[in-house]
Amino acid sequence: MAPDGRFALHGDLLDFVSTPAWGSVDTPAVRFRPDHWLLVDGGRIAGVAAEAPGEGWPRVEHGGRLVLPGFVDSHVHSPQIDVIASYGTELLDWLTTHTFPAEVRHREAAHAEPSAAHFLDALVAHGTTAAVVVPTVHATSVDALFAAAETRGMRIIAGKVLMDRNAPADLVDSVESAERETRELKGRWHGRGRGAYAMTVRFAPTSTPAQLAMAGRFCRDDPSLYMQTHLAENRAEVAWVKELFPEARSYLDVYARAGLLHAKSVFAHGIWLDDADRAALAEAGAQIAHSPSSNLFLGSGLFGWRAALDAGVHVSLASDVGGGTSLSMLRNMADAYKIQALAGERLTAWRALHAATRGAAEALGLGAEIGTLEAGSVADVCVWDEAVGSVATRRAEVARSLHERMFAWMTLADERNLVQAFVAGRLRFERDD
Ligand SMILES: [Zn+2]
């Protein structure tokens, strides 16, 4: 690689030029360019060439390997790496038993800073180069995360968790302190480098109506702000929200009434919704961050992707670690397929891969920056082995179509298949072989 970050990456280039139709394995939305060269210059994708470029382009040789845009994880909790794979609870117990104790430690910079660095390095080592991240209620955790992302040149959307009731005293803020800290953090990080600020409501039960209204005012005053929260993940949670907010028509309506339902809203889960909710999400242009491994692990429910699609709701894919059991978007795709199979639907590899690349990028309003191998995009790019181990290798050998190969890859691969990951054209992960 040249010192100025100019290089040509050789491999089998795969991305999407549009949204693949549901259930269609043969689709013009897929752009597969085997044996091509991806030209990277100054941190951006400069173009693609069918022939090896000239001497001005140092070559990075990955012939026979897959080259994809880095994955986008639309919902993941940075402090929860420490509680991934924790036994025996559903959502509400899981929060009090495992999650809240882990989050308390992030009040201290001495804990939050190395933890944020570890989290982001782990994301990249799983092939995820951009993410919508939930840190903790503490400003230290937000500063640590954005600072570590800036060092790595990563596209991160995050914000201080808002939580002024129904949580341990060490994790509770107030409307006033939350407003002050949010203003400071937003001033420090929103639009700085590749960082963007998200109003981060943990979920309706842990914020008072006054705090939700405060968050809504931020969104109204600055439409460039994102909003992230949880929505209708689990039935006990939905019942609790109904008790706490009897005036709202539905769980989603709690957020809508507070001004938190808009085109930059990212709602994790969205399992227990009705048609009116889906119509409202679609009309707002908001997205659901579908979190398959988390939904299975916590026994939360089976996401109705097809119903969301039919209503016109954007759906992106998320790991939701630590409720989710892997940062690998591939493992989450494999789980997403199984959830749809239980509903009698078929999730194609194309639709799954799209939801973790171009689809997520577009839903976040970042389609010109990430999610494709289009010239002009930031060079967030990953190189993958199609097969690791004898079973996957054999499966790839006997596959007859591109979809069959990519579906086997999506089902069998994980982070061990990742060979290199580039963030803004810089090598940030390389597998030890
Ligand atoms: Zn979550």
What is the fold's blueprint, element by element?
Elements: E1 7-16, E2 30-41, E3 44-49, E4 59-69, E5 71-77, H1 91-104, H2 109-125, E6 128-134, H3 139-152, E7 155-158, E8 161-162, H4 175-189, E9 195-201, H5 209-221, E10 226-231, H6 235-244, H7 251-257, E11 265-269, H8 275-284, E12 287-290, H9 292-297, H10 305-311, E13 314-317, H11 329-342, H12 349-355, H13 358-363, E14 381-384, H14 390-398, H15 402-412, E15 418-423, E16 426-430
Parallel strand pairs: 1-4, 5-6, 6-7, 7-9, 8-9, 9-10, 10-11, 11-12, 12-13
Antiparallel strand pairs: 1-2, 2-3, 4-14, 14-15, 15-16
Helix pairs in contact: 2-3, 3-4, 11-15
The protein binds zinc ion (ZN).
List the keywords.
alpha/beta, nine-stranded parallel β-sheet, 23% strand, binds zinc ion
Give a brief rundown of this model.
37% of the residues lie in helices and 23% in strands.
